[in-house]
From TrEMBL:
The Inosine/uridine-preferring nucleoside hydrolase domain, residue ranges: 5-301
Gene Ontology MF, one: purine nucleosidase activity
Identification of the protein by name: Nucleoside hydrolase
GO-annotated biological processes: purine nucleoside catabolic process
GO cellular component, one term: cytosol
SUPFAM superfamilies, per database record: Nucleoside hydrolase
Matches recorded under CDD domains: nuc_hydro_IU_UC_XIUA
Signal peptide range: none
Keyword terms, alphabetized: Glycosidase, Hydrolase
Pfam families tied to this protein: IU_nuc_hydro (PF01156)
Length: 312
């Protein structure tokens, strides 16, 4: 069983990822959710984390509020995609549980210091602000992390929030650079692969047909956020980003990629937040990440449905 700290700013696709994780209890033990400012402000991402845990009937999992903004920049949100609550679509239960009073950054540090070295995986679905803050505050935690698996970046599929940058890196590029430079084994699930994972009508119908409240709510959430992406891309379905992270951890054979150097553009006037992957090994910069480029969408959605089907 992998012990996970989940960094998240849900977001419908991330809701699907969190529920997928909760639907695989033999594979994952969730130590806590760290709510991040990103798709929407921190107040809403905390509330959305709590709502998802109520939905999945997992009030035992703690939620920690992280930093209210990126390290050096003003927050850019994506409420145009996710709606005014950040998690529009179904009527989700108002949470009875409350967030922990402990700060998300301190939770990351304390958890990694207490756990056996190499036993905790950081599962990042969001901007990397809180992990970067933790690494700055407590550099001793870096060698204690087993692995970072993050939905972040884009190279072959360029950008989604600007022509050259993926949202999670664009929101806090300094944080992404700190994390990539920390010497921790890292796998990135960029738009290159998530753009292959299209939530087509048939796949959403199959999700709804699971009939359980988590399956139906996930289908309703994705239908909401789809409407934005369908207009934008003109594809047969919207790319389903977040669940690529748990899917990779559950079955890496669904995916393929390459160990490369990934550097983050901080200063470019047109390319801020771009993740430059040295795919052909042109530089002598160190290989700091496994860059996932492709995946099998049918196997991905089958695994997602299998996990969602285990939930209430
Ligand atoms: C990422 O951006 C957010 O809007 C999604 O939730 C996902 O984490 C995709 O670029």
């Amino acid at each position: 069983t992998r012990k996970l700290i989940i960094l998240t700013d849900p977001g419908q696709d991330q809701a699907a990822a969190i529920l997928m994780i909760l639907g695989a209890p033999a594979a994952f033990e969730v130590l806590g959710l760290v709510a991040t400012a990103g798709n929407i402000d921190l107040r809403h991402t905390v509330a959305n984390c709590l709502k998802l845990l109520e939905l999945a009937d997992r009030p035992d999992i703690p939620v920690f509020a992280g930093c209210p903004r990126p390290l050096t920049r003003d927050l850019v949100t994506a409420v145009h995609v996710h709606g005014p609550t950040g998690l529009d679509g179904p009527d989700l239960p108002e949470p009875v549980i409350e967030a922990s009073p402990v700060h998300g950054v301190d939770f990351i540090i304390d958890t990694l210091r207490k756990a056996e070295p190499g036993t905790v995986t950081i599962c990042s679905l969001s901007p990397l602000t809180n992990l970067a803050m933790a690494l700055v505050k407590a550099p001793d935690i870096a060698p204690r992390v087993h692995e970072i698996v993050a939905m972040a970046g884009a190279y072959f599929e360029v950008g989604n929030i600007t022509p050259s940058a993926e949202f999670n890196v664009y929101v806090d590029p300094e944080a992404a650079r700190i994390v990539l430079d920390a010497g921790i084994p890292t796998t990135l699930l960029p738009l290159d692969v998530t753009h292959e994972m299209l939530s087509t009508r048939a796949r959403l119908d199959a999700m709804r047909a699971l009939g359980n409240r988590c399956g139906v709510a996930t289908a309703e959430m994705l239908e909401f956020s789809e409407s934005f992406d369908l207009g934008k891309y003109g594809w047969d379905g919207a790319p389903l980003h977040g669940p690529c992270v748990p899917a990779y951890m559950l079955d890496p054979t669904i995916f393929s990629g390459r160990h490369v150097n990934v550097s983050v553009e901080l200063a470019g006037t047109l390319t801020q937040g771009m993740t430059v992957a040295d795919w052909w090994g042109i530089t002598d910069r160190p290989r700091n990440a496994f860059w996932v480029r492709d995946g099998d969408a049918d196997r991905y959605f089958a695994l997602l449905l299998e996990c969602l089907g285990q939930l209430p």
